[in-house]
Amino acid sequence: MFRNVAELVELAESENIQLSEVMIRQEMEVKQLTREEVFQHMERNLDVMEKAVEDGLKGVKSHSGLTGGDAVLIQNYMKNHTPLSGHLLMDAVSKAVATNEVNAAMGTICATPTAGSAGCVPGTLFAVKNQLNPTREQMVRYLFTSGAFGFVVANNASISGAAGGCQAEVGSAAGMAAAAIVEMAGGTPSQSAEAMAITLKNMLGLICDPVAGLVEVPCVKRNAMGSSNAVVAADMALAGVTSRIPCDEVIDAMYKVGQRMPSAFRETAQGGLAATPTGRELEAKVYGISLKKE
Amino acid sequence: MKYRSVFDIIGPVMIGPSSSHTAGAARIGRAARHLFGREPKYAHIYLYGSFAKTYKGHGTDVAIIGGLLDYETFDERIRESLVTARKNGMKIRFHEEDAHTDHPNTAKIKIGDDDGELELVGISIGGGKAEITELNGFELRLSGSHPAILLIHNDRYGAIASATTILAKNEINIGRMEVSRKAQGEQALMVIEVDQNIDDSVLNELERADHITQVAKISD
After folding, report:
1. Which pTM was predicted?
2. Helices (H) and strands (E) in chain A, counts
3. End-to-end CA gap in chain A
4. Is B62:B29 a contact under the CB 8 Å cutoff?
5. Where along chain B do its domains lie?
6. Which CATH number describes the domain made up of B145-220?
7. Which of B4, B10, B126 lies closest to A30 in CB terms?
8. Measured distance CA(A290)–CA(A294) in Å, rounded
9. What are the tens digits of pLDDT across the range A228-252?
10. Closest Cα in chain B, distance from residue A211 (Å)
11. Integer Cα distance of A278 and B151 in angstroms
């Protein structure tokens, strides 16, 4: 079993296999399952992600009314304009938003690694897909590669906003996506690790401050930015840019930042955006009264 | 290692909006339901930390009750679980607790009916994964990273042997095992961590074994 990113990359490089293959083999071993069983399970998750993106792009609205409809706005904008940040990037953003809007509306999603950060991996996957034209198998592999990096973060740091802030959720999800994009685009295992490191470095310290405690504001847009972060970092890594701080040390830094983060910034709706005047006003509106006291 | 499977990371498939506050909470509720063995008539849910502060927004309430109704994390009926449970006659009360707990997402569930009561403490550790830390006053060290069988049994000789014999017959290897009891001759708890997920047929067999009163499994 690989315990960190260095071991994961080493396993792939020494056996001359993809990172996704390392993850698949480990899963077969740990769960005593056949390759087909492991693959089919992941393919079902892929189907759920695809359906969630589709639903979100048709337009959904959450019960609170705080989120919904932005994925449609972005797609319409892309039909009539050339996005300044590029078509692929905004496509990823719209699909990440779509996923999290469905999640906020209590729709069915696949946690990657969590529900609040479920947009980054599928958002980037279904955008990159249009340019790289992967096979269905490569798309499933994308999820195994993402999962391999998430596995390391979950075991060495945290993927819980309540424990480590948003950096642990969207930060991890974005890093996982970046690493998977690199593999799909034909990059090396080390380049995947660099992409993960570059992404996570840029999300360090991000707090979890959901307005009214709902996984809506700012979670939906954090997934949008996490996805764009992932695409940019993947491009940088593919260009040969490396992180001066190794990926495992970035993950460890994220963990330590999370441990020192006050509880107000760890999914308690007591700080950050949740504690702004408008945040409080929205909260009062959602619950009929304001529940929180400073 | 807390997480052993890639599907802990890419998964579970679930009803939104939060893996820890919705899916993890549903799994704690469902563990309580399985240990209790039937739908309870009343449920007191005590929420701590982030659970207490944000449970309404995250649907933690409908998720835990959904779990008590034996719904899985992806069951769309979770959304209507409070209505369904009340229609079934379940009396439900939520308590927001101020006490500090070791883990920010902690829930204590007290359920019961005329024939019995069960109290369980669970924590939701992220990404939909849940651990049980206390059952009927017994402290558990259930890592949640392996599938486990929980057996409530009478503290009599032969109880442990009858359980392990059944597991051996089904070629199930025991990774770790823990037995605790409240007092000699009273109710006792066996926690058996195994390597693979357990078939329901094995659970049924365990349930019929001597001195064993309740059986539940925790999938990893």
Report:
1. 0.88
2. 14, 1
3. 46
4. no
5. 8-136, 145-220
6. 3.30.70.260
7. B4
8. 11
9. 999 999 999 999 999 999 999 999 9
10. 9
11. 51
